[in-house]
Write a structure and sequence with these properties.
Blueprint (H helix, E strand, L loop, with lengths): L1 H32 L4 E4 L2 E3 L4 E24 L5 E8 L3 E8 L2 E25 L3 E14 L11 E3 L1 E5 L45 H29 L1
Parallel strand pairs: 1-8, 2-9
Antiparallel strand pairs: 1-3, 3-6, 3-7, 4-6, 5-6, 7-9
Length: 237
């Protein structure tokens, strides 16, 4: 009898141990399986002198949603310049916050769930190169009423690559050569050289037709004189 009880006790202890192990495993795996809250900005490629737009987004935001945010986008002002910033979903955007920063702040009383675009920023490429778009998240909190809870989001920076991807249009200005370098040869219109003026029948306003006529007359006169001289010499002999 005692042996049966001991065996049952051992079975119950083993079952409890398995249940505890499974429970711990489930608790441990659940956070890893859940998608983390994050904030992200696009990466784009733009021709030098052209413009391109990137989106600042909040991604995979769980309940109760995103309630408040303050995000700085730091760029390289020697490569790109912000042109416009279009706020969305309760944001306010300042493209000229500082010489190298665009600031986006906002709030949502109901909370932004899932994926949401917070702002769209258009940059102009001022020269060839690459500018990193670094995100500095000063505030990112959920929409808990009266007591917003801070969210530690994952951050995905972006880039603007200013690279010539399309051939320049015909007649477009080319880069100025550096001192000491020979300029690139360019196609030019054929040069038409003016014919000399004959001075016949019109003074300084003579044209190519007058020159041709004068040249033809001179040639005829010279030919006639040559024939006359040959005949004269023939008669003497």
């Amino acid at each position: 009898m005692k042996r049966r009880r001991n065996g049952l006790s051992r079975a119950l202890v083993a079952a409890a141990a398995v249940a505890v192990a499974l429970g711990v495993g489930l608790v441990t795996l659940s956070p890893a399986m859940a998608a983390p809250d994050s904030v992200s900005i696009d990466s784009i490629t733009v021709d030098p002198g052209a413009q391109g737009t990137v989106n600042l987004e909040a991604l995979d935001i769980g309940s109760p949603g995103l309630g408040a945010w303050e995000i700085d986008i730091v760029y390289n002002p020697s490569v790109v310049t912000p042109v416009t910033c279009s706020p969305q979903n309760g944001s306010v955007c300042n493209p000229n916050f500082s010489s190298n920063t665009v600031r986006v702040v906002g709030a949502s009383a109901y909370g932004l769930m899932g994926d949401s675009t917070l702002a769209s920023i258009t940059f102009r490429c001022t020269r060839e190169g690459t500018s990193t778009l670094s995100l500095n998240v000063a505030e990112f909190a959920d929409a808990t009423e009266n007591e917003p809870v801070p969210i530690g989001p994952g951050v995905q920076d972006g880039t603007v690559s200013c690279i010539q991807t399309t051939p320049p249009a015909p007649g477009a200005p080319t880069a100025t050569p550096a001192p000491g370098e020979e300029p690139e040869p360019t196609a030019t219109e054929p040069v038409v050289r003016a014919l000399p003026k004959s001075g016949m029948g019109g003074g300084s306003d003579g044209n190519a037709l007058a020159w041709l006529i004068g040249a033809s007359v001179s040639a005829v006169v010279a030919a006639s004189a040559g024939v006359a001289a040959w005949r004269l010499s023939a008669r003497r002999t």
